[in-house]
Design a protein that fits this description.
Chain A: Pathway: Phospholipid metabolism; Lipid metabolism. Chain A: This is Phospholipid/glycerol acyltransferase domain-containing protein. Chain A: Belongs to the 1-acyl-sn-glycerol-3-phosphate acyltransferase family. The structure holds 2 protein chains of 2 kinds. By secondary structure, chain A is α/β, with parallel strands linked by helices. Chain A has a domain of about 270 residues. In chain A, the strands form 2 sheets. Chain A has a 7-stranded mixed β-sheet with strand order 1-8-7-2-5-3-4, with helices on both faces. Chain A has a two-stranded parallel ribbon with strand order 6-9. The radius of gyration of chain A is 28 Å and the shape is flat. Chain B folds into 2 domains: about 80 residues, EF-hand (Recoverin, domain 1, Orthogonal Bundle); about 70 residues, EF-hand (Recoverin, domain 1, Orthogonal Bundle). Classes of the chains: A alpha/beta, B mainly alpha. At the A-B interface, helix 3, helix 4 and helix 12 of A face helix 3, helix 5, helix 8, helix 9 and helix 10 of B.
């Protein structure tokens, strides 16, 4: 028996050996070497164009299928359900009163039962469609990209489409996913190993130079691990030493995308586990700013460390995401003012993902980190555009909040995102009562104000 | 795998809701999508917490009352049918389909009348006033406003406002225009 199996075993081993070697050589030549030197063969762009053609075809098939069955197709709304007019409380209530009043003088009544209409209508409008809650879940797509997770018209799929989808599934999970996981491990492993090695060198120009090269190389391998196709615009505005780079936040991948094109000092909380290992080895090679969990609450400490770093012109620009949490890339939410109080030059960066190839938004209340990364690595690709905006500094007479809003508006404008004043913290927390109190105050003024007029006349 | 695909609304249900409330097919599907996105527990019903998670509603002084209007007497969950029925009160109505069951003034009356005994008492009026003004007006002032309002509206002298008296007060206000919401489709 053994004799019978032995040569067969040998053959299998040899075949496996050969295929592994071929596999790794291909990997090295087509992916790792270009990553080291920062060049590209253009394979990914070709891939992107092919995918787009297939998606268009898939959408047409679904539309045709729906038409045959004579059902209106569910089209996800990219615009609103209802029209909302931005009128003020006073204006609207006066209008309601004027139309119903049978008095001669206008709006001198102190309270009308119809006042309630304003609040009722506003309330129901916000139930039907509000600006905030939809920012914390994935954006809906117009065309189907062959991923089950983004399809709402399941029963209109023809046989051909199902076959295509099955093929897509096979390619994504059978070929792309293992490839990407291998690359990811290579990239992270190299990062940890090389930065630890560089950490042994004495501080100086050589160390900085090597650290830069190593960081760039490893991030580029990670970029390929996600099949991220990134277009950088206006690179002449890239952040310089002593500045702070701020960007809108959609997912942890933002860091990889920005750091593969330039060197930054990262800011963040020290984690345990694998993340912690990576953080600790990175800081050996060049000064990143990591905080202990307890230090994060102390705003003065944080501000001091950031300003110390910024003043040292030999240190790299700091990378910060002032929203504080991941938003779904259709809007920019309130920027926390901390980084804008330091007084350094701010380099705004806008990041916009193309949702057709894979949704990059990390819904942290729905998926954990590992689950998220797996979803990322089993999508078709991550396509995004990065715009480097010209640097901004705080002007005379402008406080930190106004400065933050100015930067936010610039980023929103460039990325084609909606500029919101709401706090990203609303993803998890409740809204502050002060907003409700403001409304109550406005309304009270309407009631009491007219009484004062009356007593005066 | 998206849960949306599995809880897709059936055609028969859409037709029933259409007949009952008068919403169009596309409006119903869009509102269904909204309903599912608010339903964090993914069990097909909404609770009061699901509504309170909407920031713009949470800062509305009458937010709690509006949320209450969606829930039938004594219940804590509302399903999609109930959701649509309440929203139907805010749909702009064509003149030829004036349906008394779904009208703006009915839902406005409900917002005042907390215990649903079909009259607005002085206390109920005070409660709503207090919600709308917060801490900015004293009890005495508010009390006199309430008294004045009841005096003007109350025609049968029972010191409370019935639905008919309510409608009479709002006679001149174009309720449909002021309460109904403009849909884009």
């Amino acid at each position: 028996m053994e004799l019978f199996f032995s040569p067969f075993d040998n053959l299998v081993c040899i075949l496996l050996g050969i295929s592994f070697t071929v596999w790794f050589t291909l990997l090295l030549v087509f992916i790792i070497v270009p990553a080291i030197f920062g060049v590209s063969f253009g394979i990914r762009r070709l891939y992107m164009k092919t995918l787009l053609k297939i998606f268009e075809w898939a959408t047409l098939r679904i539309e045709r299928g729906a038409k045959e069955k004579n059902h209106p197709l569910y089209k996800p709304y990219s615009n609103a359900i209802i029209a909302r007019e931005p009128t003020s409380l006073e204006q609207e209530i006066k209008e309601i009163r004027r139309s119903g009043s049978n008095r001669d003088f206008d709006s001198a009544s102190e309270f009308e039962m119809s006042d309630i209409f304003y609040f009722a209508r506003r309330g129901v409008e916000s139930i039907m469609d509000d600006e905030v809650t939809k920012r914390f879940s994935a954006e809906e797509l117009e065309s189907w990209n062959l991923l089950t997770r983004s399809n709402y018209n399941f029963h209109y799929i023809s046989l051909r489409l199902t076959v295509l989808w099955g093929l897509g599934l096979l390619i994504r999970y059978g070929f792309l996913l293992p490839l990407r996981v291998t690359l990811a491990f290579t990239g992270v492993g190299l990062l940890v190993f090389l930065t630890s090695v560089i950490g042994l060198l004495p501080n100086g120009r050589m160390k900085n130079f090597l650290s830069e090269k190593v960081h760039l190389m490893c991030y580029r391998i990670c970029v390929r691990a996600l099949t991220a196709i990134i277009t950088y615009h206006d690179s002449e505005n890239k952040p310089k030493n002593g500045g702070i780079c701020v960007a809108n936040h959609t997912s942890p991948i933002d860091v990889i995308i920005l750091a593969s094109d330039g060197c930054y000092a990262m800011v963040g909380q020290i984690h345990g586990g694998l993340m912690g290992v990576i953080q600790r080895s990175m800081v050996k090679a060049c000064p990143h700013i990591w905080f202990e969990r307890s230090e994060v609450k102390d705003r003065h400490l944080v501000a001091k460390r950031l300003s110390d770093h910024v003043e040292d012109k030999s240190k790299l620009p700091i990378l910060i995401f002032p929203e504080g949490t991941c938003i779904n890339n259709t809007s920019v939410m309130m920027f926390k003012k901390g980084s804008f109080e330091i007084g350094a030059t701010v380099y705004p960066v806008a990041i916009k993902y193309d949702p057709r190839f894979g949704d990059a938004f990390w819904n942290s209340s729905k998926f954990g980190m590992v689950n998220y990364l797996l979803r990322m690595m089993s999508s078709w690709a991550i396509v995004c555009s990065v715009w480097y905006l010209p640097p901004m500094s705080r002007e005379e007479g402008e406080d930190a909040v106004q400065f933050a809003n100015r930067v936010k508006a610039a980023i929103a404008r460039q990325g084609g995102l909606v500029d919101l004043l709401w706090d990203g913290g609303l993803k998890r927390g409740k809204v502050k009562d002060t907003f409700k109190e403001e409304q109550q105050k406005l309304y009270s003024k309407m009631l009491v104000g007219t009484q004062e007029d009356r007593s005066r006349s | 795998m998206g849960s949306r695909a599995s809880t897709l609304l059936r055609e028969e249900e859409i037709e029933e809701i259409k007949k009952e409330t008068g919403f169009s097919h596309s409006q119903i599907t869009r509102l269904y999508s909204r309903f599912t996105s608010l339903d964090k527990g993914e069990n097909g019903t909404l609770s009061r917490e699901d509504f309170q998670r909407i920031p713009e509603l949470a800062i509305n002084p009458l937010g709690d009352r509006i949320i209450n209007a969606f829930f039938p007497e004594g219940e804590d969950q509302v399903n999609f049918r109930g959701f649509m029925r309440t929203l139907a009160h805010f749909r702009p109505i064509e003149d030829n389909e004036k349906n008394k069951n779904y009208s703006g003034d009915f839902i406005a009356f409900r917002l005042y009348d907390l215990d649903r005994d079909d009259k607005i008492s002085r206390d109920e009026l005070l409660q709503v006033l207090r919600m709308m003004v917060g801490v900015n007006i004293s009890d005495e002032q508010l009390g006199s406003i309430a008294d004045r309002t009841i005096q003007e509206a109350d025609t049968n002298g029972d010191n409370s406002i019935s639905f008919n008296e309510f409608i009479k007060v709002l006679e001149k206000v174009d309720v449909e225009q002021k309460m109904s919401i403009r849909f884009l489709h």
